[in-house]
Amino acid sequence: MQFLCKEYQDGNPRVRSLVTETRIHLVPSLNPDGYELAREAGSELGNWALGHWTEEGYDLFENFPDLASALWAAEERKLVPHKFPNHHIPIPEHYLTEDATVAVETRAIMAWMDKNPFVLGANLQGGEKLVSYPFDTARPVSETPAAAARPPDDYEDDDPELQETPDHAIFRWLAISYASAHLTMTETFRGGCHTQDMTNAMGIVQGAKWHPRTGSLNDFSYLHTNCLELSIYLGCDKFPHESELQQEWENNKESLLTFMEQVHRGIKGLVTDQQGEPIANATIVVGGINHNIKTASSGDYWRILNPGEYRVLARAEGYNPSVKTCSVFYDIGATQCNFVLSRSNWKRIREIMAMNGNRPIRRIVPGRPMTPRERMRLRMRL
């Protein structure tokens, strides 16, 4: 925060561009009670678990709704996407009750994410040095579509329980953008902090391959909002000495800037009607990626995409869909891709049906004279 403010005032063009063109939200601590415990013990007397949980005993990173399991169960029953969405999956009702086992911090973050149309996010943690991306939940083998088709003599190293997100390539790009700019994150020749290197010397790993868990912030963010969320583990020491913080900042400074700049990669635009009025909650579908997003209250949207050419569709209830081809380039700067939707006749048909009590409207046979009663009904409908 100090760096952004100082460099902005000093006229740093990179920082000025980032601050003026990006809404940046910073949360100093998601678990302030746990931080206080870790601070009191310090680096020598503390351990990796001290400060991990809240005062009420919740692990915040496993306290969010498990929407991934719900999605996979719906896929097994062939309900996706017609009866069960592949995006913006609602929070289960039992999770919102007052007596639900949900931390107050978790409730606050969920409300915050529903209020703001976040596009890219990262939660900073310690105890390892790598970048982890969704899915964090491991899909049961019996529910994995590819598992049934795999022959018994197939001894590939791939874990059959891993389920990649539809945005797997984009998540890897985002993870690499951070790890590759870090001064030491890709130096994995000494192994990981606790075990062997799980990142194949790249400093990135899918969460389910490394540390499977359900109810993570990353999975929840991806399946409930438009936001692509990753976990960044800054180092082996979860509470480094004050004298080490300057070097830790130097290790991560370029990575933080590069990561935030990735929010401007992909496509963005407005979805409006023919009168120029914005259409909120319109759905943006990118061909080849089975995960949709929605427009914000002002009709605007942002979709992070890797470089390439995409067929993009915008649709909204009561409107005819619109399709465009949008190109994403390697340079930072999202491609503008606006949509203008025309009103659909189906909306008017439903209004007429409602006026008729949702009963079928009698077809008028040409050549047959109408009775006075039929003529009166037709006049009323018109």
TrEMBL record:
Annotated region described as Disordered, given as residue ranges? 142-162
List the Gene3D superfamilies hit by this protein, alphabetically. Carboxypeptidase-like, regulatory domain, Zn peptidases
Which InterPro entries is this protein grouped with? CarboxyPept-like_regulatory (IPR008969), Peptidase_M14 (IPR000834), Peptidase_M14_domain (IPR050753)
Hydrolase as UniProt keyword: no
Kindly state one GO CC term assigned in the UniProt record. Answer: extracellular space
Keyword annotations for this protein?
Glycoprotein
What are the protein's GO molecular function terms?
A: DNA-binding transcription repressor activity, RNA polymerase II-specific; metallocarboxypeptidase activity; RNA polymerase II transcription regulatory region sequence-specific DNA binding; zinc ion binding
> Is Hydrolase tagged as a keyword?
no
Domain called Peptidase M14: residue spans:
1-263
Q: Which domain of life is it from?
A: Eukaryota
The Gene Ontology biological process terms listed for this entry are:
peptide metabolic process; protein processing
Q: Name the family the entry cites.
A: Belongs to the peptidase M14 family.
Name of the protein in question: AEBP1 protein
